[in-house]
Amino acid sequence: MDSSLDGDLSTTKGRPVAWIDSLFVDHAVFRLIWSNLAPVVPGKIYRCNHPTAPRLRRMARRLGLRTVINLRGKTQSGSDALSREAAQDLGLEFHDVALESRGAPQPDRIMRLYNLYLSMPTPAIMHCKSGADRAGLASGLMVMFAGGTSTDALRH
Hints:
Layout: H1 14-25, H2 28-31, E1 38-41, E2 45-48, H3 53-63, E3 67-70, H4 78-90, E4 93-96, H5 107-119, E5 124-127, H6 133-145, H7 150-154
Parallel strand pairs: 2-5, 3-4, 3-5
Antiparallel strand pairs: 1-2
Helix pairs in contact: 1-4, 3-4, 5-6
């Protein structure tokens, strides 16, 4: 989902507009109180809904995060701009691996996720908007990449 936000947080009105867009257009107001953070490959890969910047900072400290995987892809939303900025401030690698929220993923995107799995610094957090569809699929794939069974993968 794109908004009218241009992604520039450096202007006088950029940051407040980004927060308004994030909270009310991208529904982050619900994510202020609700998180579905869960381990995928314990100690290595976690999943959640799109974290607000303050929550990303808390998770980075608590889990020792080194990588963020954005399963939504780059958008012009306030949520996207604010989380990218927070990841940069924290020194985290940030990767866009856009997956479809409904429908089968494209094979090249599965391979991109696999190659990222092989090369990324861990621990890593993966997120989509609500942490269900795309994050569930990516979690199942990550379990398989790590040598887990299809039964383990289906739990996600």
